[in-house]
Amino acid sequence: GVADVLPPGMRLPRVYRIDDLGDDRVALWLEDVAVIDTAWDLARFTHAARCLGRLAVRLTRAGHRLPATFSRVPGAVLRWQFIERRISMLPALDGDRLWAHPLIRAVADERLRSDLRRLATRAPRLLDELDRLPQTFVHGDASPQNLLVADEDPPVLVAIDWTLIGLSAVGYDLAQLLVGAVHAGRLPVEAMPALHEAVLDGYCTGLADEAAPVPEDVVRFGLDATLVVRSAFSALPLAQLEAAPDDGLAALVASRIALTRYGIPDIRLLYDSDVRFLEQFTT
Predict the structure, then answer these.
(1) Cα(205)–Cα(211) distance, integer angstroms
(2) d(Cα 52, Cα 223) in Å, to the nearest integer?
(3) Looking at residue 153, what is its pLDDT?
(4) Closest CA relative to residue 176, chosen from 49, 27, 67
(5) Beta strand 25-30 pairing with 15-22
(6) Separation of CA 264 from chain center
(7) Which residue, 265, 258, 231, 260, is CA-closest to 85?
């Protein structure tokens, strides 16, 4: 039922055949999507965000017709992601070995480690506050890599990789749209502030297109809090740090340190007055 509710300018890849292989396995024969080989600009990010805003409303209205396997527990997807980070990443971020690495020491500001520690204690509260926002069905992993720009006239976004679809706070999909290309090294961290405002505006326009407007501050909180929980703890290239240092690894570490710092935007406001900061968005 997903294909039936996608907004104009977005579609699924065509499915040509499904083979049941037994043992809970299937083989999908999918369209090899012909894509436009150009970098995403601000206009394309804004268009994608508008489509995601419309998608959120349309999926939610059609929720009763969607597969039962889609999570209908508000915030369950992001809570699962935080549990994963708490198990596999937070111990490394809290340990001395990471911060003693010469490439980390060369570029990390002196407060980054303590900020991440404090942020980890605030994350459960952020998750609770996200549950108080309007809830919509979301794609779940709406990075530019999963929104293929098809070589059609006009270009169409072909949405792939729906494994994280579920009910989440409004604005959830914007976090991965914002960070995906930067995390993949396709855009510099310096592009994120302008991109942040562009996707926020596009998404709010998409909600309004479907006659379901949400105040911008509410969507902004949904985006920023999701970005914090999903990306602030997972940006550093922990596995790659086991390799011998070279210029390429140094550049990667510098970029990911900057991305980590961006993932802790004005969250420092939570340190002294988390209730006031949160309640302006949720009451």
Answers:
(1) 10
(2) 13
(3) 86
(4) 49
(5) antiparallel
(6) 14
(7) 231
DSSP state of 189: G
Q: How sure is the predictor about 266, in pLDDT bands with cuts at 50, 70 and 90?
A: low
Q: What is the mean pLDDT of the chain?
A: 91
User: Tokens 């404090």 identify what position?
Assistant: 118
Q: Which pTM was predicted?
A: 0.91
Q: Looking at the chain, how many residues does it have? A: 283
CA–CA separation, 82 and 192 (whole Å)? 23
Per the CB < 8 A criterion, the answer to whether 136 and 206 are in contact is no
Q: Which pLDDT belongs to residue 269?
A: 42
SS (H, E, C) 198-244: HHHHHHHHHHHHCCCCCCHHHHHHHHHHHHHHHHCCCCCCCCHHHCC
Residue type, 2: V
pLDDT digits (tens, 9 = 90+) for 82-96: 999 999 999 999 999
User: What b/e string do you get for 69-95 counting C-beta neighbours within 10 Å, with b at 16 or more?
Assistant: ebbeebbebbbebbeebeeebbeebee
For residues 158 and 263, the model is more confident at 158
Looking at residue 282, its pLDDT comes to 40
Q: What is the distance between the alpha carbons of residues 102 and 135, in angstroms, rounded to a whole number?
A: 43
